[in-house]
Queue: 2 jobs
Job 1
Amino acid sequence: MIEALEASTLAEHLRRSRWTYSLVNAGHILGIAVLVGALVPMHLQRLRGAAPLEGILRPYAMAGLALAMGCGALLFLAQGSDYLANPWFQAKIALLAAALAHAGWHLRAEVVPARAAIASLALWLMVLVAGRMIAFA
Amino acid sequence: MTLARRLFLVTLLALPALPALAHHGWRWTEDGAFELTGQITAAQLDNPHGLLTVEANGEVWTVEVGQPWRNERAGVTDAMLAPGAEITARGQRSADPAQLVMKAERLLIGGTTYDLYPDRP
C-alpha cells in the first residue's frame, strides 16, 4: 500500500521537483499559521473571559486545518515509509487524531468550556511541536 | 501578568531548547577546506535533502550533497552516487569534531570534478 503510493507519478514528481515540493512545504506552514493563528486568540479570549471569538475565528481555523492537511498529505506521499518509521511522526499523528476528535466534539459549541479551550491549545501545540521534531529524529 | 503574556514568555524561553540540527547554510561547518575519499554505502538523493553515507578509512560519514535540482545542475546523476561508487567530496566538515558529517561543495567522481556550489570559492 505505502509502496504503491510512493511509486506513484505524483510522489515521484514531489521527490524530484525543484519548486513543487518547496511550495507544498510552504502551503503546509501557511495552513499551520492560519490554524494556530486563529486557535490561540480564540481560546485565550475564552480563558480571559472576554467576548467570545468562536463565531469569527473557527472558520479560519478550519480553513487553515484543511490547507495544512492537504499539503501534509502530499508531503507524506513523497516518502511515506520514512515517515511511518519516524517516532515523532507517529506521535504527531496520534496527537492529531486526538486533537481532531476533541475539536469535533466541540465543533457546534458557540463558546467552548474553559477546560476544553486549554485541552485544545495543549493538543494543537503538541501536534505542532511533534511535527517540527520529525526533521530532528 | 495576563495569560497571553505568560504563554508568550514560556514560548520564548522554550525556543532555544529546539535542537539546532537543520543543516541549511554553512553556519554549522568549520571554515577550513575538508576532503573525504571513500565508498558510498547508501544514498538518499530526493527532496528535501541529498544525503550520502560514505565509508572512509573505517569511519562512516554522512556527506550532504544537493537536492535533485542542484545535483542535476552540477551534472551529477543518481547513478553516479549509487552505493558502491568511489567518490571524493570536498567542502566543509561539521564544526563539532565528534560529528562525522560534511557538506560537499564539489564532488570528484572518476577523475571529473562536479561543482555543486559554483558561487562558493
Job 2
Amino acid sequence: MALIDYANPSKFLALTDRLIPWLTGGTVLALALGINQIFGAPEDYQQGATVRIMFIHVPAAWLSMFGWAVMSVAALGTLVWRHPLADVAAKAAAPVGAAFTLICLVTGALWGRPMWGTYWVWDARLTSVLILFLMYLGVIALWRTIEEPTRAARAAAILTLVGALNLPIIKFSVDWWNTLHQPASVLRLDGPSIHPDLLVPLLVMAAASGLAFVTLHLAVMRNEILRRRIRTMHLLQAQRAPGS
Amino acid sequence: MRLVAHGEFIMAAYGAAVLILAALIVWIVYDYRALRRTLRAFEDEGVTRRSEQAVKSSP
C-alpha cells in the first residue's frame, strides 16, 4: 500500500488503530529510559539540582513550537489542496500543542523563581511563548465557534498561518532583545554548549516527549475522524426522517 | 532538613507536567469512548454512511 493511500480517512483510521498501541509502548519505554538518565545526571555547577527542570521544560518548549509548525503545514494542506485529513491534523494538533506550551510556561515559572528570583518577567521570550499559548486557545475556540468543519478549517488555517510569524520571534527573541532568559544552548550553529552528561538525558527526554506528542496527536486525530462520521450520520438521519 | 536545594520547585514542575499530560490523556480516552458509543448507537439504528452502504452492497 502506498503512503498516499493513508490520505483516505478510513485507511488512516485503521492505521492509527494499529500504530497507537506501539507508539504508546515506545513512549513509556523512552520515558522510563529518560527518567533513569535524569536520576543519573549530575547537578549543574551554577543551578544545582534545579537543572533537572530543564529535562521537561526544554522538550516542552520545542514541542510547543513543533505543534504550531505541524498546524501551519496542515493549514497549507487545507488552503492549497483542501484535503480533509489536513484540517483534521491541524485541529488535533491544537490541544496537544497547547498542553505542551502550558507545561513549558508552568515549568519555566517554577525554574525561574529559584534562579531569577521571580516566577515571571515580561521579557521577549516569555511573552512570545505566552502569546503562543493564547493563540492555541484562540484556534481551539475558533474551531468550536464555527459548526461547519470545512468553513472552520479555512478560518483556522488563516489564523494559524498568521500566528506562524510568532515562531521565529520565539526562537530568536533571546538574540534580538535583552532578556532574562538564557540564549539557545542546544540548537546552535556551533554545536550544543551543554555538557554531554546533561545533554544526553535532555535528548532522551526530548525523544520521549516527541513520541508522546505524536501518539497524542494521532489519538486526537482518530477522535476527530469519528466525530465527523457522527456528524455525517446525524445529517443522514435527519434527511431520512419522515417529513424531511 | 531538605534533601535537595529547591526540591519543592523541582517536584512542583514535574507534578505539573504529569497533571497536565494526565488531564489531556483522560480527555482523549473519555472522548474516544463516548464517540465509539455514539457510533455504535447509530449502527444499531441502521444509520450508515453512503460509503459503508456501497461497501456492503458490492459483491
